[in-house]
Amino acid sequence: MFEHALFREPRREHGYCTDDNARALVVTVRQGGLDRLRTVYLGFVENAQLPDGRFRNRRAPGGAWESAAGSDDCQGRALYGLGVAGSVPAFDAGAAAFDSPSPRANAYAALGAAELLALRPGHAPALSLLERTAERLGIAAPGPAWPWPEARLAYDNARLADAHIAAGVALRRPGLVDEGIGLLRWLAETETCDGRFSFAPAGGWAPGEPRPGFDQQPIEAGAMAEACARAHDVTGDEWFAGRAALAAGWFLGENDTGVVLVDLETGGCCDGLEREGRNENQGAESTLAAIAAFQAAARSAPSSSLVDTEAAPTLRSAAP
After folding, report:
1. pLDDT at 302
2. Most exposed: 41, 56, 248, 261, by fewest CB within 10 Å?
3. Cβ atoms within 10 Å, residue 124
4. How far is CA 10 from CA 16, 50, 94, in A?
5. Where are the alpha helices (DSSP H) in 173-301?
6. Which three-class secondary structure state does DSSP give residue 62?
7. How far is CA 1 from CA 60, 150, 283, in A?
8. What is the pLDDT of residues 76-92, one digit of tens each?
């Protein structure tokens, strides 16, 4: 999975990253029937692991790895992918090495631990990791006006709520589930404008700042769709199913400028929604976010007219 694209063409000279291959691992496992791709992405993430359990992120086109471990987010995303795939030895080594103050890195790791516990109930390394990361997701602030655990929305925002819900279910902590549901409902309502999602831009957003903001990133819509699908699974509340479909619709033109971000010829997704259009590059992160959103919307509302359950998950990325 090449990281970057110039319009529709992969920028092979920039190589690969663990972040994107871990994301690709998640979507291929969830879709099923994509065993060859799943094996490729799983092998990439496992090969990224250093002897101390951490993960490298950058790999050159010729196959050479950077020597240093990747960012905290990279560590969390790798654990997320390995947890979904049930790759126990690599997950256990990564879990033992994981230690980050970052709420989002902890959210990714928590999601991976919860997924592995669903496959292997009581698995001690996953349980230990989940208990540690659940305490580092941030705590909802008092008062309804701004309950978000941060002073401003940053990036991949719905992941924090998603991880609260997943961790609460896996740890049998109803209060944590309720906190995640409340945060997700608030976030979805805050980022809805005139019946469509208007996501925090790349620079983040806080009360009093202009809306809509640009550039809006596909990872926001992908994370929102996945979190709302989980909330629907847990609560049965159809409101969340509707929000998952609405987040998928963001890619299809239900956004602040009415621009379709998915290229139906390539299956790629443009890298951002801009004030005057879209970023025409079709990178891996954006394409995988779109596929994940369509998967989530199909799972929670399979009859939705927004989602073609046959075509959406098999879109051909411009970046593989």
Report:
1. 56
2. 56
3. 10
4. 11, 27, 30
5. 174-190, 218-235, 238-250, 284-300
6. coil
7. 12, 33, 10
8. 999 999 999 999 999 99
